[in-house]
Amino acid sequence: MALLDVCYPFARKAGVVAQVPAENSAAPPVSLLAGDASLTSGDCLVLLLPGALGTAINLCGVRAIGRPLEVREANVKEADVWIGLPRVRPRDSAQLRVAAGAGEWALYPWGIISAEGSLLLKDASPRSEGVCHKSIDRIQLFASSPDSKALSQLASAYSLEGLMARSETGEEPFATLCFLGGPGPAASLADDQPFAGVVTGKAVLGSPGASTPFRAEDRTATAFHRQAAALVMLYSSSTMMPKSAGALDTGAD
Q1: How many CA atoms lie within 13 A of 247 on its CB side?
Q2: Domain that residue 115 falls in
Q3: Are 97 and 128 in the same domain?
Q4: What's the CA gap between 131 and 125, in Å, rounded?
Q5: Quick one: which of 8, 16, 76, 82 could link to 107 by a disulfide (CB 3.0–4.6 Å)?
Q6: Residue 40, pLDDT score
């Protein structure tokens, strides 16, 4: 992820972390190039597209349990509990400097309690993902909770952002892809939602919130988002962005 951000600092990026089904699973296998190359769990597929890209990423299929720093009983299974670690300071959230939800919390599956009382997260390292470099000052618990309206609300948020930053071309996306990262988002997908393609995995990749190709943006780091959904809007024109985003791009006009 860091290499992509260095080579394409101003490009909008979105993706999904592959999750290969178990041997006894009824889910179809994940393969590339008509089966010539197979994905293993945790692999990332990178596509460089000539057209412009818009994204909308947020938490999906989860609900908060209690308030931050509050420990309480909840009628949920341990497998459905997710630990939210802060991505930003409370002041940034209060002043709306970051996107609500995915911009505030990085979710990790519930881990194992050691004999000393420490919590060990499963298959995750927050520091390697750029979360809580120094210390953890607060947490927020979440529980899986399918929400059939979440993807429609995410699409509406992107549409509103597009109306506010519409370019003179007025071009609409020719296709929308749906990336689902985790069991909550997968269970939130409704049968009647019209997406050109749907991909499920362990997590989605990209910048939280809605990002359109109609305005220039500052450098943003590509982040992992578990229990989140990403809508990727594809545009046929590559000239909509005020700045070109290419290898070793300095951001200059």
Answers
A1: 1
A2: 62-145
A3: yes
A4: 9
A5: 82
A6: 60
Contact between residue 206 and residue 57 where contact means Cβ atoms under 8 Å apart: yes
pLDDT digits (tens, 9 = 90+) for 56-87: 888 888 888 876 655 556 677 878 888 888 88
Q: Is 245 left (phi over 0), alpha (psi -120 to 50) or beta?
A: beta
The predicted pLDDT at position 16 comes to: 79
The number of beta carbons lying within 10 Å of the beta carbon of residue 209 is 20
In this structure, are 158 and 211 located in the same domain? yes
Contact 201, 40 (CB under 8 A): no
- Note whether 150 and 135 are same-domain residues: no
d(CA 82, CA 143): 6
Domain termination residue (choose one: 128, 145, 162):
145
In a domain, 249, yes or no: no
Amino acid at the residue 108: Y
160 and 201 inside one domain: yes
pLDDT at 151 over 50: yes
What pLDDT is attached to residue 229? 93
pTM confidence score: 0.74
Q: Is the pLDDT of residue 135 over 70?
A: yes
Cα–Cα distance measured from residue 123 to residue 205, given in angstroms and rounded to the nearest whole number = 17
